[in-house]
Amino acid sequence: MGDTIQAVIFDCDGVMFDTTKANQAYYDHVLAHFGLPDMTPAQFALAHMHTADMAMTYLFPDEKLRTAAQEYRRTLTYQPFFKYMEMEPTLKGLLKKLRPRFKTAVASNRADTMAAVLSTHGLESDFDMVVCALDVVAPKPHPEMLLKVLDHFEINPRQALYVGDSILDQQAAAAAGIPFVAYANPELTSARHHIDSLAQLQAILL
After folding, report:
1. What end-to-end distance do the CA atoms of the chain give, in Å?
2. In the chain, domain spans
3. Taking the model in full, what pTM does it have?
4. What is the pLDDT of residues 18-49, one digit of tens each?
5. What is the Cα–Cα distance from 182 to 15, expressed in whole angstroms?
6. 7-18+86-205: CATH class
């Protein structure tokens, strides 16, 4: 089939869901537990893109306090914050149109909350593969999770698309050699395509 696209890989936060309010509330809750103020815009920008462990390292530079904060965070469930998540309105319709012609996957820096996010929103059967930070040694911007998807589907990088919204997504796609589709972020200038709605993928793929 040459380099015909066979798989579409999605980032989670900022693409499948608008999780701005959810992640803000989650990390602010942890900070408040230790008497610290809410995240600044700069802190949020980092926390929103990276793994939870990296976010906690940034938010709690003191090692002793960070250890306590990590222990507290692991006692939390993400369930109370699901109500703040907003699913991309065309996501489910798009997935129905893509499958089974295309394989679908998620590659996200989320960790222990990834499975719950999918099951809570009824998406657990809509993806052929899900790779999160728990499944790799190195999270994005390292390409490891994208390479795992390629290996799983037994395809080359040019037979996939990766849809993301952050510089980490763009860097991971470039390192893996996968064509990148930038979602609602015109600053990602090396993207092959720019879209503002997941429905626009139909014009690219179908």
Report:
1. 16
2. 7-18+86-205, 20-83
3. 0.94
4. 999 999 999 999 999 999 999 999 999 999 99
5. 9
6. alpha beta
